[in-house]
Amino acid sequence: MLTSQRKQLILEALKRDGQVVAKTLSVEFDVSEDTIRRDLRELAAEGQLQRVHGGALPASAAVVDLAGREQIESASKAAIGRAAAGMIARGQIAFVDGGTTAVQMVRHLPLDLRATIVTHSPSVAVALANHAELEVVMIGGRLFRHSMVNVGAAAIEALSHIRADLYFMGVTGVHPQAGLSTGDREEAYVKRALVEHAAETVVLASAEKLNAASPYKIADVTAAGTIVVERNTAEALTAPFDALGITIVRA
After folding, report:
1. What are the residue boundaries of the HTH deoR-type domain, all occurrences included (predicted)?
2. Is 86 strand, coil or helix?
3. What is the CATH number of the domain that holds 23?
4. Contact in structure between 211 and 237 (CB atoms under 8 Å)
5. Does 15 share its domain with 98?
6. Same domain flag for 106 and 122
């Protein structure tokens, strides 16, 4: 069997089963585990999968640049954002992450809502310019242009002095075993700190992020109390999270 054929079969198995195990593949294809591991390394380098100990998981499709992400299912992201916006009550303090879904979310906040939004995203802050009743607190730091968020030690230090009622998290991967993940190390640190300083974490997850993984883990998936998904998301995608006691909100 040609290497290209074997790789294609690996990707088909990954799509069908949601994960692949190197040892199982080596038996199936009658090749060494080293050969399979090389295949997985090369496929991971191409962005086709995310390697994990002993095998691989689907790679998140949500790792393109900001302009590319803005084109991904914008109507679905607007619906998720609308549902999330309705969770903020008068007088609450909410952390709002960066990303295109977070921007959609704050655009749906009522203009007369009196609450405090804390964000490390310049895009989110600008989207709230006309919400005169909202107090908007910007967390500073080094601008990570891929996601248009501020990261680094300064950001983590600033947010460590705030206790929020809710944290609306954007991710690139939501997986029952691999947890909540993203594609940048420093961004993962900031998200982890936001989880630790919020009473409840709400994950905003369009379909391409579910049961997928990215290189940098933020936290176990159970750090999320709620996951907001598109209304027509397949039950098979959400069932593993429901089984863990996480509330699934269909937007």
Report:
1. 3-58
2. coil
3. 1.10.10.10
4. yes
5. no
6. yes
Judgement on whether residues 71 and 188 belong to the same structural domain of the protein = yes
Range of the domain at 33: 3-58
Q: What is the pLDDT of residues 219-235, one digit of tens each?
A: 999 999 999 999 999 99
Strand runs labelled E in the chain: 20-21, 49-52, 55-58, 93-96, 116-119, 135-138, 142-144, 149-151, 164-170, 173-175, 179-182, 198-204, 216-219, 226-229, 247-250
Residues whose CB falls within 8 Å of the CB of residue 233, separated by 6 or more in sequence, listed in order: 207, 210, 250
Phi, psi angle pair for 150, to nearest 5°: -90, 135
User: Rounded to whole angstroms, what are the CA distances from 71 to 209, 218, 226?
Assistant: 15, 25, 25
Put simply, whether the predicted model's pTM sits higher than 0.85 gets the answer no
Phi and psi at residue 4, in whole multiples of 5°?
A: -60, -40
CA neighbours closer than 13 Å in the CB half-sphere of residue 56: 28
Q: Which of 235, 221, 237, 231 is nearest to 251 (CA)?
A: 231
22 and 122 share one domain: no
If asked whether residues 11 and 130 sit together in one domain, one would say no
Mean pLDDT of 84-107: 95
Clarify whether residues 221 and 246 are in a common domain: yes
Share of the chain above pLDDT 90, in %: 67
Residue 193, CB half-sphere, CA atoms under 13 Å: how many?
21
Q: Are residues 96 and 220 in the same domain?
A: yes
Which residues sit opposite 216 in a β-bridge?
Answer: 182
Q: How many folded domains does the chain comprise?
A: 2
